[in-house]
Amino acid sequence: MNGVIQQAKRIICEELSGAGYSVKRVLLFGSRARGNADSHSDWDFFVITDRDVPLSQWRKVSTRMRRRFVQAGFRGDVFFQSEASVAQRKNNPGYLTYYATKEGVEI
User: Fold this and answer.
1) What confidence category does residue 97 fall into, taking pLDDT thresholds of 50, 70 and 90?
2) What is the pLDDT of residue 1?
3) Distances in Å between the alpha carbon of 12 and those of 6, 23, 61, 62, 85?
C-alpha cells in the first residue's frame, strides 16, 4: 500500500507542477483511508492546490495522472481544489470537500 501511495503522490505532484500549479496537500480518502477497501477498490486522492485549475486544464492533467496510475498498476481518481475553495467548502456536507477533509489522511 505505501508503495502505491508514494507513486501516486509523486505522479500527482509531477503533473500539477508541470502544469504550473503548486501542490499544498494531498489527501487519501474513501475506502482506502477508512480501511474498508476490497480488491476492487480504487484509490481516491484529494489535492489542494495554490489556485484554481480551470476545467479544461483539469481534464488534461487528471487524464495524464490516471493514465500514469494505470501504467504503475493501480486505479485512482484525483480531485483538486484551491486552498480558497477548500476554505469555503470544508464545512458544508453538500461538497465532496467536506468528506475528503474530514476522513482524508494526508500523504
Assistant:
1) very high
2) 56
3) 10, 8, 9, 9, 19
> Residue 66, exposed/middle/buried by CB under 10 A (0-12, 13-18, 19+)?
middle
Q: Give 103: exposed, middle or buried? Use CB within 10 Å, 0-12, 13-18, 19+.
A: middle
Alpha-carbon gap, residue 83 to 71, rounded angstroms? 30
2-106: which CATH number, 3.30.460.10, 3.30.70.1020, 1.10.3720.10, 1.10.10.10? 3.30.460.10
Residue 15 reports pLDDT greater than 60: yes
The helix/strand/coil state of 74 is: coil
pLDDT tens digits, one per residue of 28-85: 999 999 999 998 999 999 999 999 999 999 999 999 999 999 999 999 999 999 999 9
- The values of phi and psi at residue 46, to 5°, are -120, 120
